[in-house]
Design brief:
- With 575 residues, the chain is mostly beta strands.
- The strands form 4 sheets. It has a 12-stranded antiparallel beta barrel.
- A hairpin with an 8-residue loop joins β9 (295-308) and β10 (317-331).
- It has helices at 6-12, 43-54, 104-107, 112-118, 209-219, 228-242, 248-255, 265-281, and strands spanning 35-42, 68-74, 78-84, 100-101, 132-138, 143-148, 168-171, 189-194, 295-308, 317-331, 336-351, 357-374, 377-398, 411-417, 420-432, 434-436, 439-454, 457-458, 467-469, 472-490, 493-507, 512-516, 523-525, 533-545, 548-558, 562-574.
- Helices cover 14% and strands 44% of the residues.
Length: 575
């Protein structure tokens, strides 16, 4: 259809730097990045313009009367969304390609009824209404009109009330901004989807596990149009629309937006804490040769490798831990020994199935221990406290879908978090010693309690995808039942071992809560908690020398979804 009254329309434009009118949603008429404002016109003047385009005075107002519309030009491509109907069995019905498009941020999460009302979309002569949507890439260099959709309560074609309007909309079709012809190629109306009666462009209902918690949270955010977070959500929109029968790519992408990696930190700290308590505990009541009364100084170095299997709730990880420990014991009498010890432990964590994220946890611990022996029974206890710090590089890596001409949906960012935590742990064992055929046997039972406080922190480096991670408190109580054995190989050499069964009696806070930094609200994912059971084998070789002993030892921790193996070397010298 020929475009008319172009000169009159352009003459009526008042070139102005006036601020855009803000619609009821998160978009503005001129808020598209890189947009150049060429001029303004009243909504009444725009009605005249569209009457010229359509060649009739029977035209519904394209923008809300009494507001200002804008003539704008893009300097870079942007992605919008268009509403249309299928099947298009009447020429009067909106098709996939067409002139009217909207900001995605204003449509995301709305129901079909809300979309129809917000943009006053048509009621067709057969009573049908728009039921589909398509993403549209508007290229750089396109001139168009932008403004607020007005109410259409009495359509000029007699179809009645279309809706109340209020949403921002753009006209990029034939004759837009006085340009004769179509500026947006038909191939740019690309990714399509159903505008179901329920909310559109939402991810939560299609997901499960941790991804569902993240997606549901994102679905409820009032995301500013064309913000960094909005551009990131576009990546999810494309995955959502291009995989209606396969949610796996969407699930994998949404999980990367969440705090799963931080669920591993309590596990890493618990492993460090166990290594230190074991060091304190073996200072007394163990199978090593008993030194003379007085002061003993000891040292221990170890390297440990651990692995936690991933679940739908939490990404698995591998870790390597190095530690140096030392302390001093004082044997007050044959019945009582007390001591103090300290440790520095450093763990490196790698999440291969979470975008190759990586991190480190460093812990400094200080503890005391004591052993009291009465007859053939001993009571052995340790109390330790520590502070942990470190950093985590949470990587978000999503490949370009290739679905949007000239626009990449790839995401490659690294969010850096610097978590801190304090912890206290205690252990109390009751046991006895017996010698059977030259083998020293030490059965024991006990309890272990641990408490951890993780501080709140906010990530940096990933713009709109940074997380604000809430602080949390967690504690656990575990039973212990085991036996230690020591077998003298020669006068100065001893082979010793231990087998321990630990059962969880109670535990709390196997979850992480977080929200997008600068956004309202938070969500919680139920990360992997402590395993109900643990088997901890150990095997070592110790040798005596004048005034002390040295040893090499293997220590393991085997659980349902977790395995750790440590190589330990240590020595003790009496003074």
């Amino acid at each position: 259809m020929a475009f008319r009254h172009t000169t009159a329309i352009l003459t009526g434009l008042a070139l102005s730097g006036a601020p855009p009118a803000l619609a009821a949603g998160t978009a503005t008429a001129t808020g598209i990045p890189g947009l150049t404002v060429l001029g303004t016109a009243s909504a009444e003047a725009m009605l005249t313009a569209f009457q010229g385009i359509y060649g009739t005075t029977q035209v519904n107002p394209p923008f809300e009367l009494g507001t200002t519309a804008y003539v704008v030009r893009t300097t870079q491509p942007f992605v919008a969304v268009r509403s249309y109907v299928s099947p298009r069995d009447l020429s009067s019905k909106a098709g996939q390609t067409g002139g009217w498009v909207m900001p995605i941020a204003e449509m995301r999460g709305l129901t079909r009824a809300q979309i129809l009302d917000r943009w006053a979309l048509p009621v067709y002569s057969d009573g049908t209404r728009n039921n589909r949507l398509t993403l549209v890439v508007v290229p750089a260099g396109v001139s168009f009109w932008s403004g607020v959709a007005g109410p259409i309560t009495n359509a000029v074609d007699g179809t009645g009330n279309w809706g109340q309007g209020g949403g921002i909309q753009y006209y990029v079709g034939w004759g837009a901004a006085g340009v004769q012809g179509y500026q947006v190629p038909a191939a740019n109306y690309t990714v399509t989807g159903s505008a179901d009666p329920g909310p559109v462009l939402v991810t939560g209902p299609r997901l499960s596990g941790a991804a569902k918690a993240v997606g549901t949270y994102l679905d409820g955010l009032p995301v500013a149009a064309y913000s960094d977070l909005d551009r990131a959500l576009l990546t999810l929109d494309v995955l959502n629309l291009t995989g209606p029968a396969d949610a796996a790519p969407l699930q994998a992408a949404v999980r990367q937006f969440g705090p799963e990696v931080y669920g591993a930190l309590p596990h890493a700290i618990d492993h460090q804490r166990t290594l230190f308590l074991d060091a304190l505990g073996r200072r007394s009541g163990g199978p090593e040769a008993t030194l003379a009364p007085g002061l003993t100084v000891w040292t221990r170095a170890l390297g440990s490798a651990a692995r936690l299997d991933g679940t739908e709730e939490m990404a698995g990880y591998r870790s390597v831990t190095w530690a140096g420990m030392g302390g001093a014991d004082y044997r007050v009498s044959d019945a009582l020994e007390v001591g103090i010890g300290g440790a520095y432990l450093r763990s490196r964590l790698d999440w291969k199935d979470a975008g190759s994220s990586a991190g480190r946890v460093e812990t400094a611990m200080l503890g005391v221990h004591g052993t009291y022996t009465l007859g053939g029974v001993f009571l052995n206890g340790q109390v330790a406290g520590g502070t942990s710090w470190g950093d985590v590089s949470r990587r978000i890596a999503i490949a370009d879908s290739g679905a949007l001409p000239g626009v990449s949906t790839a995401i490659a960012r690294t969010a850096t978090g610097k978590p801190r935590a304090e912890s206290v742990a205690s252990r109390l064992d009751l046991g006895t010693h017996a010698t059977l055929e030259g083998v020293r046997v030490t059965p024991f039972v006990g309890l272990q309690h641990a408490w951890l406080h993780g501080r709140r922190f906010t990530e940096s480096g990933a713009d709109g995808l940074n997380l604000a991670v809430d602080g949390r408190d967690g504690q656990s109580l575990r039973s212990r039942a085991g036996v230690g054995v020591a077998y003298p190989l020669a006068a100065d050499w001893t082979l010793d071992g231990r087998l321990l069964w630990s059962q969880r009696l109670s535990a709390s806070s196997a979850s992480v809560s977080a929200g997008m930094a600068g956004q309202p609200g938070a969500f919680t994912i139920g990360t992997t908690g402590e395993s109900a059971w643990s088997v901890q084998p150990a095997l070592g070789l110790s040798g005596r020398f004048a005034g002390g002993y040295a040893y090499l030892r293997y220590e393991g921790d085997l659980r349902r979804n977790y395995r750790a193996h440590a190589a330990v070397a240590g020595a003790a010298v009496a003074f």
